[in-house]
Prior knowledge:
L-2-Hydroxyisocaproate Dehydrogenase, Chain A, domain 2; L-lactate dehydrogenase (NAD+) activity; UEVLD enzyme; UBQ-conjugating_enzyme/RWD; L-lactate/malate_DH; Lactate_DH/Glyco_Ohase_4_C
Amino acid sequence: QYKFRDLTIEEMKNVNKIYPNFTFSINTYTFKDGSQKDLLNFSGTVPVKYGNSYNIPIHLWILDSHPFAPPICYLKPTMNMGIAVGKHVDAHGRIYLPYLQNWSHPKSTVIGLIKEMISKFEEELPLYSLSPLDAARQSELLSYIANITEGDTDMKSKSKICGGKYEGCFNKITVVGAGDLGIACVLAVAAKGAADKVVLLDLSEGAAKGGTMDLEIFALPNVEISKDFSASADSKVVILTVNSLGNAQTYLDVIQSNVDLFGGIIPAISHYSQNAVLLVASHPVEVMTYVSWKLSAFPQNRVIGVGASLDTERFQYILTNLLKAQLLAKDAWIVGEQGEDKVPAWTSCNLFANQTEAMTARNLREKVANRAMEVLKEKGQRSWSVGLSVADLTDSILRDKRKVHSVSTLAKGCCNINSEVFLSLPCILGTNGVIEMVKLEEDPLVQEKLQSCAGSIHDLQQQLKL
């Protein structure tokens, strides 16, 4: 059942060489949503120096998407040990480390994880000795932890909603990335009111800063901030806003940094929310949507990019309200690439009495569209405006609105495009993402521009290391 079996076996062999006291087995792990999987796991002790020398018992579960998703780590205290809750350990013994949050294959390994675990435990010892009375009380907690990690979760303890169903029926969404765009998406989605719960997955290192800290201070209802991928479990929509902040020199290097970043995120996200729609807002959106599709192995309808959705809404608004061309606006779209290479297009071809009348109407439409494009080019893509657009897309998906949006979708087979590239095209969105692509009016110039966009994007993708 392991997707990368050979890589996993090889890594476990390396772990066994360095830590021969670890015992390996296959057991059932129960996730927060009650779903279960048989997973490879191992337990043993690691040496920690904290004044004296201690052997700290740990238990690691290896996910079936390993090595692209980090292990789930717990302490395994004996009856006479108490859990010292701290910044790296919670009351149930779950271990949280920067190494886990920043997990990225191939630089991240289980051996490297254990080394950081030892280092952090030497700064703050995670366990302490219990008195006999405390040890008796500890046994109840240990029993609870064992139930969580060994597949015997008491589902009665979960909150029931939606007529006896569990929280899987919630309209839950996760926003990955706590930068300006990520926070803007959280605020916009919360204001829209479509989601019952919004999780902001903050993958940055160190303590909460800036907007994340403000969100914690002012505590919006139904908004949770977490650094743990498992908090995203059972999301119906996962919005990706992260971008690499590395020191890349060339445009290709910048994109490759983002690809590497997604390599540590998408497998974990797709593991915890296997039926989610992935909505990509990271740059460049067409390429990163393609990368998300490849890394997740999700069907193409459930991986979309924000694409030209904001530009299209603005374009239609300009036509309707500034240029008073309401009849044109309802069939007007921005397609292709996000940015300078966006193309105005139309989804209906009106029937005219003769060719002259049709030519006159199209010339008029072209003039109006050119004026609208000039106004549109003056508009920037600020975080809050993109956030509003993302919230609108999310609302259409969660509420199954069957509304048409211009989003990045797999364009292969459209306009004689034969490569696997994502371009903005008008699509009907619903619960499962793209329901249907709306056919564009046949226009040789639009087709030529879309084919050119597809060619340049495909050439760029060929240079990336996935």
